[in-house]
TrEMBL record:
Protein name: Cytochrome c oxidase subunit
Main location: mitochondrion
One Pfam family, short name: COX6B
InterPro entries per UniProt: COX6B-like (IPR048280), CX6/COA6-like_sf (IPR036549), Cyt_c_oxidase_su6B (IPR003213)
Source organism: Simulium nigrimanum (Black fly)
Gene3D superfamilies linked to this entry: Cytochrome c oxidase, subunit VIb (1.10.10.140)
Compartment annotation: Mitochondrion
One GO cellular component, as annotated: mitochondrion
Entry keywords, A to Z: Disulfide bond, Mitochondrion
Amino acid sequence: MPAAVELKTAPFDPRFPNTNQTRYCYQSYLDFHRCSKVKGENSETCKYFKNCFQSMCPNAWVEKWDNQRAEGTFAGRI
């Protein structure tokens, strides 16, 4: 019998109480990259933000933002 898979999503964040979670997605993406810059990607704190944005954001958005960061055209402040 295969092992049970535990599925998780981002926890509730009171800064984003509405059903539209676009801002939560974007803010988690920014928080992860800011955290990574200071503490490194493998920090537990950074992993929390990574899990949040991976859970909340459509993959196409993340790919677009990653490409923009690589090209130096990303609009967010990291």
